[in-house]
Amino acid sequence: MNNFFIAKEPYTRSVKASPLFNLLKKSLRFFKIGDLKSHIFDPMMDMTTVEQRISYFHLLNRVIDTKVRGEIIEFGTFTGYCALLFQNVIEQSKSGKELHLYDSFETQFMETGNIQDILIANFKKAKLQVPIMHKGYFQDTLPTQLPDEVAFVHMDCGFGGDKFEHRDILLFCLNQVYPKLSKGAICVLMDYMGAEGIEGGYDVNPGAKLAADEFLKDKPETMVALYGNECYHGYFVKQ
Ligand SMILES: C[S@@+](CC[C@H](N)C(=O)[O-])C[C@H]1O[C@@H](n2cnc3c(N)ncnc32)[C@H](O)[C@@H]1O
Known about the structure:
Layout: H1 19-30, H2 50-65, E1 71-75, H3 81-93, E2 99-103, H4 115-125, E3 132-135, H5 138-145, E4 150-155, H6 163-177, E5 181-190, H7 207-216, E6 224-226, E7 233-237
Parallel strand pairs: 1-2, 1-4, 2-3, 4-5
Antiparallel strand pairs: 5-7, 6-7
The chain binds S-adenosylmethionine (SAM).
């Protein structure tokens, strides 16, 4: 088992560095006066950072290794960057868990066209089993289409818009899934920024923290904020 795939396509956009770039990079390092990044994080193009993908890999393996009951689900899938990682871990671990994806498949970001078709093509290209998809608005699908038991849920439905609208969507999702979470299940909230924040990070969806604070205020669980370089996320473990 390995997690080398987190640094390969489709996560790295293949920009071949020129010899001049490499020479400059080497010189800066040699004289210890700086460095150059060959992959600059672009919030319009990159759905996750490598630091976040490392966390996803370990968090998902944790519920699989500790035999937490239930399936793996994601609210907000787009063309499947995170879902590819989840399916890869499921298949490498031979856990037999199912991946369920929930999305309207209507939102267009940097990729346009039929989003569901692009997602399917991405899975086929990666030679991974295509997950079970629940197309529609969360308000319509979640009340009747959630698995009975959930071991891991990733909530990633931010759109960079109104933070209160985002908070309310997340509160709906949290209320729907919480009773289905098994003991030890992990709930990850994309864009959750802890109280501290980090210089240079993008707080694109502050609704994630608003939702977590409000939802957990009368619950035993607490959020763990994870460093993700330019992006943030956090999780709680179901008691
Ligand atoms: C930031 S993208 C998800 C990115 C994805 N996790 C990835 O790895 O590429 C947010 C997604 O949430 C979906 N979404 C937001 N609100 C929704 C709602 N109320 N019902 C269904 N899908 C929704 C959008 O369609 C969009 O695809």
